[in-house]
Amino acid sequence: MTGSAWHVAPDNPRWIALGGVVCALVVLAPAVLSPLHVFIVVGALVAVGSVLFSPPRAVMAMVVVATAVPVHIVDATRIPLGLRPWEVLMVLAAGFALIDLFFRRDLRIVRTGVDVHVLAFLGITLLSAFVGSLHGNASDVILRNMRYPLYYAAFFLVTQSVDARSVTERFSLLFIVVGACVSAEYVLEFLGAIDLSTGNRFVRVARRQGIVLPLSLLMIVNHLIHDRDRWRGWLPAMFLFTGVGFALTLGRGMWVAFVVGLLVSIWLWQSGQPVGRRRWWKGIVLAVGLVGTLGVTMMVFQRVTGAAISAHALERSRTFLDYTRDVQVLSRLLNYATALQQIARHPLLGSGQGTELTSYSFNPESDRYETWRSWTLDSLYLTLWLKMGLAGLMLFVWLCVRVGRHCLQSFHGTRAPPERAFAAAALSTLVAMMVLGISDGSMVNGRFAVVMVTLMGLVMVSNSQNTSEDAE
């Protein structure tokens, strides 16, 4: 059997050779500086090449970069205008979406039930920037503050770029994978910080991208409940591995948020069953089994590494009973009191973006409290009230409630396992993050806002598809 040879006959081999040399230089030249620059350049080239003229892939890349890329790499990346890598991908995705809207969809805009709420929230964000300028807040701090709430403009990018099929086929898996990547970063950092020969050194791993871990775990749990046959071969392993990184955070707020999200998942599971088939004790057994499995996994991990993880976890958990045991908790409460005093001066419109507060923190080296000016606050609700006033706080909460209602509608409106699993995971995550918002402001302050608004957009895409099918 003779096969025909494949001959390449370029029209201009000189230009092709020159292009190859340029590509090689682009990749190899940064090696003169450091291996980190090679990683950044190659990663940027791969990201741009993968998302070129594909809005859905650009949105996926935006989520990956905003969650899985380590902080030190993000800080080492210098982009004009001070943009972050995920912001560049957001701009690229918006450009591709506009091209698609004009030339392929004839300006057919997808509308959802919370478009007005998102637009109103963006409007209040701009208004709060104006209010901040009236109060004399620094312009650079105003711009730094308002960039994160403005991430919610990506909601329209998601609704105009992603179809309902991609929600369950791509994004569900994406949220699981990025959680595993973050967990791997946590485990590697932990192992690099402790002394494996003695195991007597413990270092808490607390990075901002760890906020995505509850989302990933709840996505896995709901697929195990509602769509267990889809990825049944590796979902339990992913749950255990992601759970290790989640436990290493020693984040008390995230632990509580995950438990609340787990309870919501179980409630959805049983409420979605016919009345005669509901067995609430099964939900209790499942919750205890999942939490117990994570506990056993951590005990094995502790046994292998020799690190006293359980002792540190128990010590931090005691603050649930006596908050005076932890000076960091006391510092946070002092910051809350300071914020409430500032809110009392301007309760309706707030103090605007760029507002800075005098924060308190305990320094164990000097054995005393120290103060500094801070533009962030570890509370979603106090942050919104402080900077956007009562209107901004109520509007954001109402937006979350509306999205949650659409999650519930999607869950009860379909019998397809992938769609039910995603709707249940989205609702449980939303409730968990609102509980976490009591002690964390990541939903509107930081890069996790990109992930949260993407999840909201995906919920509305899935819900609009189910609504249109019911109408037909």
Report the principal-axis shape: globular
Series of secondary-structure elements, N-terminal to C-terminal: HHHHHHHHHHHHHHHEEHHH
Distance between the termini: 55 Å
Question: How many domains, in number, for the residues?
Answer: 2
State mean pLDDT (0 to 100 scale): 81
Condensed summary:
By secondary structure, the chain is mainly alpha-helical. The protein has two domains: 84 residues, no CATH class; 268 residues, no CATH class.
Overview of this structure, please?
This protein is an all-alpha fold and 472 residues long. The protein has two domains: 25-108, no CATH class; 149-323 and 379-471, no CATH class. It is 67% helix and 3% strand. It has 18 helices and two strands. The protein has a two-stranded antiparallel sheet with strand order 1-2. It is globular, with a radius of gyration of 24 Å.
Task: Please describe the topology of this protein.
Elements: H1 13-28, H2 35-51, H3 55-68, H4 71-76, H5 85-103, H6 115-134, H7 139-146, H8 154-161, H9 164-193, H10 212-226, H11 235-248, H12 252-271, H13 280-305, H14 309-317, H15 327-345, E1 357-363, E2 368-374, H16 380-412, H17 417-436, H18 448-471
List its salient traits:
472 residues, mainly alpha, 18 helices, globular, disordered N terminus
